[in-house]
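Why show two proteins at once? Because comparison is the fastest way to build intuition. When a single record is shown, students tend to memorize it. When two are placed side by side, the eye starts asking what differs. So, the first record is below.
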Amino acid sequence: IYGGLIGGFLAALVFARRRKLNLLTLIDMIVPGLALAQCIGRWGNYFNMEAYGLPITNPAFQYFPMAVLIPEGGTQVWHMATFFYESVWCFGIVIAILLLERKKKFSRSGDIFLAYVFLYALERGVVEGLRTDSLYWGPLRVSQMLSLLAALAIAILMLRRTKPRW
């Protein structure tokens, strides 16, 4: 997903420059649709039976939406439904952004984009810790580390943008 987001950002940058548009305003307009597309797109992981989480052995949690049955070695095993957790979180991002926008909580171009990146990075930082198909760099999950660094960088940037200048 990170490659797609970076590629989309670069395409928006080129498009904004060619059309002489404000890049931050453009990506602010794209973000709610992007988050909704991610919400829907995560269901592809369910149909492909991929990107699921750790096995669930407690029968009290062996039901959807907590878990999904995944075929393993000729049997069905309950795993965390991480695709569903991500789908719900992305839908929550859409709702949060639209509500905050309606209440005029975003005052500058780029605020919506920054809110999206922060919220999505938090989600990925949590969900990546539950998945079984993560890429590792030593003992750390690459995507989780990248997500948490992105959330921290965005939080610092948002604080700097709201800090009054004397």
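Second record. Ask yourself what differs from the first in the token line.
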Amino acid sequence: TLKKCLEIGNKVIVSFPNFAYIKIRLYIMLSGRMPKTKLLPYEWYNTPNIHLFTIKDFKELCAKEKIKIISERFSGFGKKEVPVSLIPNIFAEFAYFLIE
């Protein structure tokens, strides 16, 4: 899908919920179950999302597919921007990338 989007436009904005977010990690650790959130209120077997992944997974995919990340932003903790220095793969609830 990313490659097809990049064929249509030179630059593409990609955003996704980060499944390595600390609240999700803690929920899984403490409950032993996949979480349901306001954004994703589905059972794990009934989710409309085909692939659940993390910021680190996305960056590795871009490197493997030779997709250049132009910029990245992260949000969490009430949708405030989270600086990259605060380990976004753990502390960011959402990720936003500009790729080409």
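One difference worth noting in the second protein: The first strand starts at residue 12 and ends at 17.
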